[in-house]
Amino acid sequence: MNEAVPLLLLGEKGRAHLVACLTARVEQWRDAWLRGHAPVVAVEIHDPSSQPVDIRVHESICFRVRTGVEVPLVLIAPPRAIHELMGVSASCSGTAAHIRDDNSLAGVLELEAVRGFAAALLPASVSVNVARTPQTAPEIFRAYDAARYIRAVIHLSERRSTLSVLLAPAFAESLLPKRSTAPDGESVERRRGALGGETVVIDAVLGTAEVPVAELAALAVGDVIVLNQGLADGAELTVRGGKRISGAALGRVDGKRALQLRGRIA
Amino acid sequence: MSTVSNKVVSAIELPGLVNGTGAGERSARLGERFDLVEHVKVKMSVTLGGAEMPLTKLFALTAGDVVTLDRDVDAPVDVRLHGKLIARGHLVAVGDKFGVRISEIIAE
To answer: Which domain holds residue A22?
Structure first.
């Protein structure tokens, strides 16, 4: 279940976008499920590693959403929020024990409500299957915090009920706009200014030669290695341990070797 | 000869192997048997020197710019194998190719 996290640096913009996206999907679902009734919905996005487990989730019911693709999703909700999802009056009280995953009408309705809710969050093409998990909410949080899942806390009906959704990083990433590669170079320029003071070592590579191990083992002072580089070819400038910068002509400046860049700069 | 057979075949199950538990006496270590790999070719590179520069300067490089290296003109060049210095030598011309006359072998 664990997977590497591409989303550690969500940033304020990404966080706001995720909130807007989830809010729209939840409201759209509630509008359809509850036939026109669209209560106030607020969504908070929490950094996975920085959020202590809310003591109120101890009484929550946990659902693991299985999908046709690798988009794991976990819902953690107190009974009040489950009632909200089902469209039952939020004023009715209940505990985790009151709503069971059984074949009763309430049990079926509960699973169908959660399934519909999960389906609204996920892409339309994804098939959704919901099941209760025997894990407790703290166990779930511990496991998924370790995997650094994004936690979305969704407040329903003027914040009287809340439920948590743990989003797989890849799924959360899919909800965000594609990260800009700054085609106009604007953001690159900003970073360039910050990096400008860093120094880098470059090497002047004259050429290479391939020799059998036997010849290498017998290499001695006075031997001549013939390189693949012609006298007219000059040398190459490379970033140490990195890529080629440019071809260059070999020369001297004040008694030191020097290279004059020529041709296309990488 | 046909490679297709209509004989009954059965699956082959390979035994699990654990390093260092082979039957019988253990033979001598393979050791530095260069004869096994003497034909294998390795690629050496020859570097003339280096230079350290700020990224701003690197980014500003254009064709025609001159980069001064950290080596004197008559200093030996480095012969490297996978980045590791193995020898030094002096530049020579061999026909129309560059060559390096080895002046020092670098000990391990």
So the answer is: 11-175
Q: What is the pLDDT of residue A55?
A: 52
Count of domains for chain A: 2
Summarize pLDDT for A235-246 with one digit per residue, the tens.
999 988 778 888
Find the residue in A nearest to B99 (Cα): A226
Judge whether A151 lies within some domain: yes
Residues A30 and A159 in one domain: yes
The mean pLDDT of chain A is 75
CATH of the domain at B49: 2.30.330.10
pTM confidence score: 0.48
Domains: count for chain B: 1
Give percent of chain A with pLDDT exceeding 70: 70
Interchain CB distance below 8 Å, B105 and A220: yes
* Chain A contacts in chain B segment 41-70 (CB below 8 A): 41-56, 58-59, 61-70
> Are A129 and A238 in a shared domain?
no
Contact B45 A207 (CB under 8 A): yes
CA distance B85 to chain A (A): 13
Residue B66 has its nearest CB partner, among A211, A221, A258, at A258
ipTM of the complex model: 0.77
Instruction: Decide if A33 is inside a domain.
Output: yes
Place of tokens 């936690």: A151
